[in-house]
Amino acid sequence: MEPYWALLEELDVPVGIHAGPGPPGATYITPTYRMRQSSLLLLEEVLVRHPKLRMWAMHAGWPLADDTIAALHAHPQLYVDVGAISFFTPKKNFYSFLKRLIDAGFENRIMFGSDQMIWPDALSVAIDTIQMRPC
Q: From residue 1, how far is each of 6, 24, 41, 49, 111 by CA, in Å?
């Protein structure tokens, strides 16, 4: 991937990385899936080698809030989006996770993401969830 990272950095093209869970029981659907691979800390070597590479992590690395906060703290070129976590996790859990990121000072690096490829009705649910947030 190194030539791609270098080119993306050189051309100032933001890159999105899928980080976060698959469906419940993902390991038993896709046997090679491991939740620990959703840690945003796994992005560090790329971010260190390419300090001008703008990257965002889809699903904000949910549910690994500590790793997400640590990665955002260490790497100012890293952003996150809420993606599907805004509608597939219980609202109380989503708001708690989002509040942790905001309370840690990263509200300006959290983006909306819909993650909509095949569930168009979920887009309005995601928007409603964000608009009525209690954070």
A: 9, 29, 17, 12, 25
Per-residue pLDDT tens over the stretch 70-110: 999 999 999 999 988 888 888 899 999 999 999 999 999 99
pLDDT in tens, 20-42: 777 788 889 989 989 898 999 99
- End-to-end, the C-alpha distance of the chain in Å comes to 37
CB contact at 8 A, 98 and 133: yes
Domains of the chain and CATH, by start: 2-131 (3.20.20.140)
Contacts of 64 (CB under 8 A, 6+ apart): 38, 39, 40
pTM of the model: 0.89
Task: At 77, give phi and psi (nearest 5°).
Answer: -90, 5
**Torsion angle of the four alpha carbons 36, 79, 122, 124, in this order, in degrees rounded to the nearest 10:** 160
Long-range contacts of 31-35 (CB under 8 A, 24+ apart): none
